[in-house]
Write a structure and sequence with these properties.
Helix content is 31%, strand content 20%. The strands form two sheets. A four-stranded parallel β-sheet has the order 2-1-5-8. Strands 4-3-6-7 form a four-stranded mixed β-sheet, with no helix packed on it.
Length: 175
Amino acid sequence: MKSADRLRVGVSHCLLGAACRYDGGSAELRLLEEILGARCVLIPVCPEVEIGLPVPREKILLVGPREAPEVLGEESGRTFGERLRTFARGWLLGVGELHGFVLQSRSPSCGVGSCWRRERRESEPLRDGTGLFAEVLLATHPGLPVREDTDLPGAAACRAFLAEVEAYASRREKE
């Protein structure tokens, strides 16, 4: 299959083995390349690195109301929310057509409903937050097949996601 004919799936870069997580590690999910890579162009992105945060780096937290949280450095208290949202809008506008996305769960930039969020910095965390990159992705690409790494625990789940990506691309082609 020619590269131009392949499906385009965005992926949190750490899931492809890049050592870009806050602790300097990765969260490689080999099945992505094994199953999706044969049919899809996998497009990596790490929003936190892209906005200039170092590796390793301080942990960042979602703080504030669920509908409009801020991202704060855990130790420094620095805010990163506007930078993350601005980056997300620009990257998604420039990346071209996407047929699916796989995001790192629990990440304050990439998690979808699995992130720890605090109403206030000192309050108890709730596991109901969506990362800011994911928030922009979901708002700008309604209907796009999106999964977190934890939604793809094995080959069968990856194949089912690939089928959903193919169906989405087919629908888009007919529009």
